[in-house]
Design a protein that fits this description.
The protein contains 8 helices and 9 strands. By secondary structure, it is an alpha/beta fold. The chain has a 5-stranded parallel β-sheet, sandwiched between helices. It binds adenosine-5'-triphosphate. Keywords: ATP-binding, Hydrolase, Nucleotide-binding, Transport.
Amino acid sequence: MLELRAITAGYDRRTPVVRDVSLSVEPGEAVGLLGPSGCGKSTLARVAALLHRPDSGTVLLDGEPVHRWRHRAPRAHRTAFGVVFQQPRLSVDPRLRLTDLMAEPLRATGRRNEIPDRVAELATAVGLTPDLLTRRPHEVSDGQLQRACLARALVLRPRWLICDEITAMLDASTSAALVAAVEDYRAETGAGLLAVGHDHALLNRWCGRLVRWDDLGPAA
Ligand SMILES: Nc1ncnc2c1ncn2[C@@H]1O[C@H](COP(=O)(O)OP(=O)(O)OP(=O)(O)O)[C@@H](O)[C@H]1O
């Protein structure tokens, strides 16, 4: 279970953007977090993915409190999460070909021998044709780059997926393909999902449970 307990977080301790928020995701569960622009959803998503240390509150992974964040987190924690962000161009190294971008986590964890098979498997799963894999980010569309980012998030077979507005700015068919790829992965592995967004219809179709930002506070 992934549990966020009484999380307060932000970028200036005097004015936190997330205040006393609690939320949990069971293994295999898909939770959709809905809220208006700027309310703090992305900040909370980054806390959930152990990428942003909260000012106060506790994140528990399978009942164990997390004490270290970002690169200081133990490898088992870092690799437990696959994260996809809203703007793929901001989350990739522009010099990497898509194949290397997708393989990055395998290379970083010393699993180079798995790269060819895993990249081929994931390219199919996310709908990237072989000709696209040798291109660099500026040579592909936003949707194609987001598919590669999803593949990168799945490459280490995480137990938890954090998807932060991953279909914003994409057309309906690309959005549907990305959601389908996430759901195929979850069906195969039983991974839990926290999907953040403001598109009620999309999150309602995608997730088993919807949570509204305004209902997350201490009074909820
Ligand atoms: N790195 C940062 N430094 C300072 N303030 C930030 C930073 N990132 C976000 N903020 C501020 O924190 C608040 C919450 O931002 P956040 O991105 O978490 O909201 P959001 O609900 O995900 O918004 P959106 O739906 O528009 O992406 C906003 O007021 C934003 O300006």
